[in-house]
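The authors assume throughout that readers already know how a fold can be written as discrete tokens. A single example would do more here than another paragraph of explanation. An entry of this sort, consisting of the sequence and the corresponding backbone structure tokens, reads as follows:
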Amino acid sequence: MPNVARSRIRRWRIFFIVSGLAVVVLAAIATLWIVHLDRVVTREFQGRLWSIPARVYAAPLELYVGAPVSANELEQELHRLHYRRGDPGTGPGIYQRVGNAFDLQARRVRFIDELRQPERVSIHADNAAVTGMRLANGADLPVFRLDPPVIGSVFPIHGEDRLIVAPADVPPLLRSGIKLIEDRRFDEHHGVDPLGMLRATWANLRARRVVQGGSTLTQQLVKNYFLSDEQTFGRKATEAVMAMRLEARYSKEDILVAYLNEVYLGQDGARAIHGFGLGSEYYFAKPLDELEPAELALLIGLVKGPSLYDPRKHPDRALARRNLVLKELGDAHLIDAPAAKRALASPLGLRPPGGTYVPAYIDLVRRHLKRDYAEADLAAAGLSVYTSLDLKAQAAAEHALTQNLTRLDARAHLRNEHLEGAVIVVEPNSGDVVAVVGGRDVDASGFNRALDARRPIGSLVKPAVYLTALESGRYTAASLIDDAPIELKLADGSVWAPQNFERVVYGQVPLARALAESMNLATVRLGLDLGLPKVAATLEQLGLESPPTLNPSLLLGTVEMSPLEVVQVYTTLADGGFRTRLRAVRAVLDEQGRPLKSFKVQVEDVAPPAAVYELDRMLMLVPTHGTARDAAARLPRGLVIAGKTGTSSDTRDSWFAGFTGSYLAVAWVGYDDNHETGLTGAAGALPVWADTMAGLKPLSFDPVAPESVEDRWIGFNDGLETTATCSADAVMIAVPKETQLPKNPNCLTSPKTSVGDKVKEWFKSIVH
């Protein structure tokens, strides 16, 4: 054989050997690639299938006969919960009102302690309160809770939010409709539809770029779960292989339900709306199973382009897309002709813009949850977080702050910057935080002044000084203290010479008056006599988190605290010396409704109840005879309150902390740059506090006297024991039993307090 022929044969042999090896290597690489993708699909799909953030709920409105909820207020609450007028017999979430009588079909709702199934309820109310409640069978209903409102989600993954819909809760029309519009051969193919891919490939080749997907629902799910939106042939090949592996591993039912929970349907600010469950809430404010055909058609139509067909930004475009979907549903006989005609004639029916946004409160919830859970657990476990938030209290606090800051800004003609503020409202007996406002822009996230603005508290510190005095046993509310000038040489050689706010000296005054009128000189002398370490120790016992600096100026409130810390301190005073740990979270349930962590009320006895009662009696004089007298004009007539104004140096911070028989609230007003406001606590924060309380319908503060103390009458100006009618300036204080007080020589009758005296004092407080 010629050498040339042999050489050619040798080259062909080498070619076939190399080609065979290449095929084997490529097949091995492809196999490894497919095995790798299979593992990715299995691991990621199982791990992410039900990955959702924790959903946060406000406290439900509890109704009972006598509950202070009028008929109009009840209807407002039903609107807030997106109940609709109609025939309650047609399904949950619908109510009918005739006069002051309500007939409603309540939704299936999970509470902390029960899962309530849909039920028919009749409620009667007048202009002030609930007057009757019955079940559909006529049985009396002692207590009924409205749905707990959803107020947000905690720790969404990459800004994604979703509300998982179980297979049994997917409406049949949605199952059929999404397959009709997005993947008609879903039930036949194995993850990839060759016919659809051929059509897309031909279109892409003609355009010399990827212009058409031809993706099945499974491929779309793969893209959303594992891949980017990059339009390349390599990515499409990976998508196809992963789709086939997904179908090989999981059932059509698993894939369809996962798709319905994963698909992107729009954007709410930084929050991405994923899944039909959350889409139903976001666009229509009702559960998925309550949607009408037209509403389902809109959501199905959004899948093609959530931004392009955004019904809020492009209503005409969205309406046309919805109607196209409805026509397809009608042509496929998924809805009958009359239903299709009604749906085509209906408006988009979106819920009103906005919603329940309480970013400052959610911030507090996040912090409380962080103490007990990892962020990843909160994002993945689908927890339900039940909070203490009272939406009526929140609304009252937001309105009071924004309205008063606007009013105060109008008076500050020399400043371009707007005043800021914060409000926190709690129930002192339980420690439940019912409202948090972190700034005048109540819907904005960011710097939360209620939790993080640490500012000098001014005269809010004074109750701690006077409590230290009462605890010592050396002083009572009637004891005299000298309100006189004082100068102190400090360690750095400078001289500290405090003054009263009005730059007036009052001389010998009883402690009750010194506190009520917030006298600086008297307070400094009292604090120095007691000793700074003892005053600091009292502050820490009441709830101050870190030891204050022991400077004499501590006695006038140079210590910096956030409104939240002030609330903790004053909660102890409102609760008779018992420090109750503040809580925003009442309970956390897992996806199955099982409690994971219950935040029990934590109470600690930190101050003698007798001394705290004596102090509270003094704080009740602040709004009747002291610096908070202006509060009465804004509060319900006859409401008894206790509290203290606070003004920091050069009027940079305006504070008021006070409590009723139902609530404790702290309000702060100031500039973020620490500029002078020109506002005292009475001029700035007090109106915010009073307007907040006026919207809450609180009970009067009526503390119960411990066995060891009793109420007495003294002259507000001289501290001499008197009676309610003998002295024009008579005020009620509390002192330890058997305390001998110097008596007013002009008042010879028994000074002991009677019921009649207490009634007279109540009327005097109203007048003042």
